[in-house]
Design a protein that fits this description.
By secondary structure, this protein is of the alpha/beta class. It has 2 domains: 6-214, YjeF N-terminal domain (Rossmann fold); 237-471, 3-Layer(aba) Sandwich (UDP-N-acetylmuramoyl-L-alanine:D-glutamate ligase), CATH 3.40.1190.20. 39% of the residues lie in helices and 15% in strands. It has 19 helices and 16 strands. It has helices spanning 6-18, 23-41, 56-70, 88-96, 134-147, 194-197, 221-224, 237-240, 253-265, 280-284, 321-333, 343-356, 365-368, 379-385, 394-404, 441-454, 459-479, 490-495, 497-505; strands at residues 47-52, 74-78, 115-120, 151-155, 177-181, 199-203, 216-219, 242-246, 270-276, 292-296, 309-312, 338-340, 373-375, 409-412, 418-421, 426-429. Helix 2 (23-41) packs across helix 3, helix 3 packs parallel to helix 4 (88-96) and helix 9 (253-265) crosses helix 16.
Length: 506
């Protein structure tokens, strides 16, 4: 599903009303979906406070806390408007909550008892800086988030954020999670908005007509369900796919281990790591027992035909001029799906520089791109690959890549990873957190994607699912495990991949 501008969203709602939907019915459905999403994201009951303005966006939050109260959460309301200033539906939803505490002192929250603030101040019809009394309430929410470890969840869009452009106005609410209702709003995808939206998840409303996909789509749990087929009872390791990996060098053995472990934990039937003879014994002592390790003296020893997918690059090192030539020869021998990361990308960028200098006219970047290749650069690697795109917006880069390299897939890492391929929308990944800003996360992701490729997924689908799973596992390691933003490591993410797969199928 694509994104819509706010005016288009209102037109979609008007169309639904013509076919029998009602504002209250949509509010109830949205509130229930919001509550369900919150229950999935927290491992224990806590306190939730609906922070509302006068409009129906606050009504969604009020419905949500009613369902959360039924699930055993403590609830409260924070509203600085007089009762007479509220819309008819929010007033009704407050009455339905009975004696719910309003504007009470902040409850004492203990460890393991989350404090959640629902941002229901403003909906998509508002724009410009927040005005009193909402500005004061937004400041209160932001202070609790910083100083009292509150988790802020925005209803549809964070208040104070332009739903069309993503422009952030003074005093805007900072959310850790945005639950966008019905259809994603265009402004949520803007790089301007990233520090105010947090993770993003769609709350579907089946009553709304489906809009066209457009050229930018949200990559979330709803868009991924059904892509990975359920395994039959007689499924065997050959059906799960064979992954080959070329990774690791002295000083960077862990990258190879993380990549191989990611492939293993994402479901590959057989995982084989190729390593130079000089580091074979070192790696053998570090790898999971299930991963096969093959020593090689030259890259010519690798036969891609033995595998269903391949991963290249994590911790590989830059190599010599001779090894670079054999590396490019290996790429040209790859007729299977391949994920290229880290030093694999750096070697390709060096080939591009040589081609520009006229040294190897047949070794340019385009000649390195196979029909089923997935490139997974972070911003620094991207700058080395494509220096001509310096300063260009990330979404525009993804579109330009898909146009220029119509045989390959780009996974552009960042706070919201982008996945692009020719003939398809750019997908905007919705999961993850700042704890993933640590070494090894990309190595793990490369292994996960290669495993999904080996199981038969198309390159774009494998990249999309790998990005979502890794981000969701990082979220689960904090919300359901014992990790924090500061302590999260790639190994922790790997440990929660199983729960992320389960979450995707729930």
């Amino acid at each position: 599903m694509g994104s819509l501008r706010c005016a288009e969203m209102r037109e979609l709602e008007d169309e639904a009303f013509k076919h029998g939907a009602t504002p209250e019915g949509l509010m109830e459905k949205a509130g229930r979906g919001i509550a369900d999403a919150i229950l999935r994201r927290f491992s224990s009951k806590g306190t939730v406070i609906a922070c509302i303005g006068s409009g129906n966006n606050g009504g969604d939050a009020l419905v949500a806390i009613r369902y959360l109260a039924d699930a055993g959460w403590e609830i409260g309301i924070r509203c600085l408007h007089k009762s007479a200033e509220l819309g008819a539906l929010p007033r009704k939803k407050i009455r339905e909550l009975g004696d719910c505490p309003m504007n009470q002192p902040l409850p004492v929250c203990h460890a393991g008892h989350p404090l959640v603030l629902l941002d229901g101040l403003l909906g998509i019809g508002a724009n410009g800086p927040l005005r009193p009394p909402l500005a004061e309430l937004a400041a209160w929410m932001n202070d609790l988030r910083i100083n009292h470890a509150a988790q802020t969840i925005a209803m549809d869009i964070p208040s104070g954020l332009d739903g069309d452009t993503g422009e952030v106005y003074d005093g805007a609410v900072k959310a850790d999670l945005t639950l966008t209702v019905g259809v994603p709003k265009s402004g949520l995808f803007s790089s301007l908005a990233v520090n105010h939206t947090g993770s993003i998840e769609l709350v579907p409303l089946t009553e709304l007509p489906d809009p066209d996909d457009g050229d930018l789509c949200l990559n979330d749990v709803h868009s991924l369900r059904g892509i990975l087929p359920r395994r039959e009872h007689d499924f065997h390791k050959g059906d799960a796919g064979r992954v080959g990996i070329l990774a690791g060098s002295r000083g960077m053995l862990g990258a190879a281990v993380l990549c191989a472990t990611g492939a293993l934990r994402a479901g590959a039937g057989l995982v084989t790591l190729f390593a130079d003879e000089s580091i074979y014994e070192l790696l053998a002592a570090m790898l999971p027992a299930e991963v096969m390790l093959r020593p090689i003296s030259t890259l010519a020893d690798i036969n891609p035909a033995e595998f269903d997918a391949f991963a290249i690059g994590p911790g590989l090192g830059r190599g010599s001029e001779e090894s670079e030539t054999s590396f490019l020869d290996l790429l040209q021998r790859m007729s299977i799906p391949v994920v290229i990361d880290a030093d694999g990308l750096n070697r390709i960028s060096e080939a591009g520089k040589e081609a520009e200098a006229g040294m190897e006219a047949d070794r340019g970047i385009e000649q390195c791109m196979g029909p089923n290749f997935i490139l997974t650069p972070h911003p620094g690697e991207l700058a080395r690959l494509f220096p001509e795109w310096a300063g260009v917006d990330r979404i525009d880069i993804a579109k330009a890549f898909a146009t220029r390299y119509d045989r390959s897939t780009l996974l552009l890492k960042g706070a919201h990873t982008l996945v692009a391929r020719s003939g398809s929308p750019v997908y905007f990944n919705a999961t993850g957190n700042a704890g993933m800003a640590s070494g090894g996360q990309g190595d793990l992701l490369t292994g996960v994607i290669s495993s999904l490729l080996a199981q038969g997924l198309e390159p774009q689908d494998a990249a999309r699912m790998g990005a979502w799973l890794s981000g969701r596992a990082a979220e689960l390691a904090i919300s359901h495990g014992n990790e924090s933003i500061q302590s999260l490591a790639a190994g922790d993410v790997c440990s929660w991949l199983g729960c992320a797969f389960t979450d995707m199928g729930s």
